[in-house]
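Handoff note, outgoing to incoming analyst
You'll be picking up this chain. Sequence as last confirmed:
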Amino acid sequence: MKIVLVGAGGSGISNLAYILQELGYDNLLAIDGFESQITQALEKNGIKTLIGHGQYQIKPDDIVIYSEAVVNSPEVQSAFQLKLTNQQPLKIRNYFQFLGEMSKYFRTVGFSGTNGKSSSSALAITTAKKLIPQLGIGIVGALIPDFDSKSYYLNQEKKSEFRLLFDAIFTGRQVPYHLIKQRYFFLEACEYKRHFLNLDLEKLAITNIELDHTDYYQDLEDYTSAYLQMIDKTSHEVFVLKNLEQEAILSNPKTKILPVKERKLKYIRGEHTNQNASLVAGVLQSIDPTLSDEQILEAMYEFKGIWRRMEFLTTLPTGAKLYTDYGHIASSLSVGYNMLHQKYPEKKIIALFQPHQMHRVLVGWDDFYPALAQFDQRAIYQIYAARENIQDFAQEPLFQQHHFTSVDELGNYFAKEHNAEYLQNFDQVMTFLDKTTSDDILVVFTAGDLDFLLRK
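Most recent structure output, in case you need it:
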């Protein structure tokens, strides 16, 4: 019997692989379609990893945990087929369903929102492990320098307890009552396709709300309705900042509205940091009311940020400083510009943007104009069309007008609209980098594959 983790190149599934390894499971098999920094790290850390789908045949007694991004892979599809035709109780869970199973055994706190949920959850876990002894597990969707560049925290003194809890998830075995809901579980709660509704939350923190994931949500009202559903499911408190605009959330009896206070951290500062830190402080003080603002600030002061969130990569041979950021909607680009302009007021700020999904480009078309216009220079890299086919957009007005037949044609037009250079391949990216100077600050905005290509 193996625990088969499909889609292990994503931060979520890879997190589970490491946690299970730490808990003593030695029957792990990680599978992904492509080699990446994450799969290389799994292999380096002793977790058997297969690159390329279809190499392993799922067995009736296997446990399969998969990323939604690979639901159509041979492993996942054969697992579903086996479950239909075989008498053995094959266990299949997607990543969010498995987190939901975990959350039933812990006092679970979710951090959600359009922007800042990864940074807030990472800051919360980093701070809580110093101040909240009951913290058991923390999971974030990004690598964290404070966690030895991993994406999770595991209380080492409680691993034997957690092994019993995970055994119960896998086997259905009963767990001693005194172990249930004794430790806190902090995690990033993803709103895409309402995935966070799988979670059994005690507390929910919402950073902000603006329309995103437009391939699933019809409009802002639909998007907000997902949060209202999650609030209904949350058993205790919901924390928001006073600048949240959604009245239905602000007026909910579970909602606690927090003020934004200036909190100067050593490595990261700015309004976004003030907001994230204020939200985290409110959550921690609800767990331990004796904690003062001063204690919390001291505990979070050394926080170094997270992977791909305005992360400094290197100084290029030209002398330009290169940053990478996960930003993929207009407001994220604006936040990134403001951070860099505040840090380097005399420098030229250049954006190299890889749009994430054609649908996001089309829905956010007007919003990208002011966001990208702030930068002194712009370049657009090929759109990362995850989960999309260009034929599906044939009826869109822009497609009707310009008759785009490829993703590159749409990307090139988008670049021209923003007075930006269009980079069709990675060789052109490298040429673009070579043209920078020591007076330049270059930030690469990508939720796609460009970050990995640059690191590689």
